[in-house]
Write a structure and sequence with these properties.
Blueprint (H helix, E strand, L loop, with lengths): L5 E6 L6 E5 L4 E4 L7 E3 L5 E4 L6 E4 L8 E4 L7 E4 L8 E6 L6 E5 L2 E5 L7 E3 L2 E7 L6 E5 L6 E4 L4 E5 L4 E2 L5 E8 L2 E8 L3 E2 L1
Antiparallel strand pairs: 1-2, 2-3, 3-4, 5-6, 6-7, 7-8, 9-10, 10-11, 11-12, 13-14, 14-15, 15-16, 17-20, 18-19
Length: 198
């Protein structure tokens, strides 16, 4: 982009589908591993792609209207799924499940969640990003808006508090395994990569 720098990026599991966006909401994408590229000047600044590559998403940010557009044909066509972001906020994060069916968008004061490739949306106003999404879309990791900055895991069965204001530091590739204990309780069962808690 013209001097604005890349703002977000994602790629499919096999690396063939690549999508990038800059701070001016220019989105560029490749369907052949970067050999050739297509672009749109105002599509969005926050982008994502399913692991399978069958769904790409681009959401406007940084003072633009906040439209959200989705492509299910590898960028040949884009369909607007949302006309604006809620409450005049800005989209801050986007995650897509492996098969492209579930989409999570984080904005300044909440989350927008779709389970049908963006056709319908549910808004949650007591959680915020950054967000993470499990490969099958069944588990969402987000933060509460409360001052204690607790972290929440949402599953098909329940929403549960993991803990208050903790942090973990690790190297690239570090991981933490969580197990559901029942009764709205989770525990860390394993960590790798020299993770340190404080």
């Amino acid at each position: 982009p013209s001097g604005s720098g890349w703002y977000s990026a994602d790629m499919s599991g096999d690396g063939s589908i690549i999508i990038l966006a800059d701070t001016n909401n220019t989105t560029v994408w490749s369907t052949n591993g970067g050999t050739s590229w297509s672009s749109s000047a105002t599509l969005g600044a926050k982008v994502g792609v399913s692991r399978s590559g069958n769904l790409m998403i681009s959401a406007q940010a940084n003072g633009y209207a906040g439209t959200v557009s989705v492509s299910t044909d590898y960028g040949s066509t884009w369909t607007q799924k949302l006309a604006s972001d809620p409450n005049g906020s800005t989209w801050e994060d986007v995650k897509v499940s492996d098969d492209g069916s579930k989409i999570i968008l984080a904005y300044t004061s909440g989350l927008a969640i779709s389970s049908d490739r963006g056709d319908n949306w549910t808004y949650i106003t007591d959680k915020k990003g950054p967000v993470a999404l499990s490969s099958d879309g069944s588990v969402i990791l987000a933060s509460t808006l409360a001052s204690d900055w607790k972290t929440y895991l949402s599953t098909r069965r329940s929403t549960t508090t993991v803990g208050a204001s903790y942090a973990a530091i690790g190297e690239e590739g570090s991981s933490i395994d969580l197990v559901y204990l029942g009764n709205d309780s989770w525990a860390v069962t394993n960590s790798a990569g020299g993770v340190t808690y404080y």
